[in-house]
Amino acid sequence: xxxxxxxxxxxxxxxxxxxLAILKELENKGHASIEEIYETIKEMFPSISLATIYKNINxxxxxxxxxxxxxxxxPKFEISKIPHAHFICKKCGKVEDxxxxxxxxxxxxxxxxxxxxxxxxxxxxxxxxxxxxx
Amino acid sequence: xxxxxxxxxxxxxxxxxxxLAILKELENKGHASIEEIYETIKEMFPSISLATIYKNINxxxxxxxxxxxxxxxxPKFEISKIPHAHFICKKCGKVEDxxxxxxxxxxxxxxxxxxxxxxxxxxxxxxxxxxxxx
DNA sequence: TTCTGTGCAAATCTTTTGCATGGCA
DNA sequence: TGCCATGCAAAAGATTTGCACAGAA
Lengths: 134, 134
Fold this sequence. Notes:
The structure is a homodimer. By secondary structure, the first copy, chain A, is an alpha+beta fold. Helices cover 45% and strands 18% of the residues of chain A. Chain A folds into two domains: 4-79, Arc Repressor Mutant, subunit A (Orthogonal Bundle), CATH 1.10.10.10; 84-130, Dna Ligase, domain 1 (2-Layer Sandwich). The first copy, chain A, is elongated, with a radius of gyration of 19 Å. The model of chain A has no long low-confidence stretch (mean pLDDT 82). At the A-B interface, helix 2, strand 1, helix 3, helix 4 and strand 2 of A face helix 2, strand 1, helix 3, helix 4 and strand 2 of B.
């Protein structure tokens, strides 16, 4: 509980019971969706509003205190082809196919055998790196 | 155009101009979102409905003709920590942290230097592999 | 006391569904 | 001809916004 409070103290966000509850839930579960957070917090905190969860998740993300695990991004589609990895630009959303490197492939196969794997690398593409920062 | 038609012929789906247009758009762009598909097709095909795009994208996905690139999945959040990869179960949605393997890490760094990387491995977790197929 | 955060309600956006009509096989 | 696909409109779901009040600093 101490650590969570200090996360907020070191940011531009005020300490509120709602924010502490959200962080506590994330600490407990490791990963949680908006709904999961809402349902759990509502039990001890019946008056909390979904809008508050959304607003706080967005503030906490902007401050870098929390991260979004499945990058929220419009889903895109492609005609199915042989397995390959994807490079997805976090700024412009462009998707590039990249061949599934043998080294990576074997390495993951060792760790997660018999499992359909899909590899995504999120980054900033060459173009966006040139034109503007962050 | 010939190949696209045969994709449908070999499936349980009927050949319609709308479906061919969607596949053609995906072939041209490589990857496209629902909106992008809709906007482009509407130009030559003003009467097409967004619902038709959605329905067809879902049918084409079920037939395995197309794939979803950013797996549509409720976004989840976590307290920010040192870089690590995520294993995400495609069935139950559970997220597991996995350490960023040195081999993988270096390998990607060589290919995509100076780029904030996030690695996701989508698969079926041990639990779901046990309980039921597919 | 000041200013940010909360909670409600409404607005907006995204996706799905029902149904009558149209078109492929 | 039979049945699946389309297009419209409405429904359902997800997320954002505006505003008045409450609470943190």
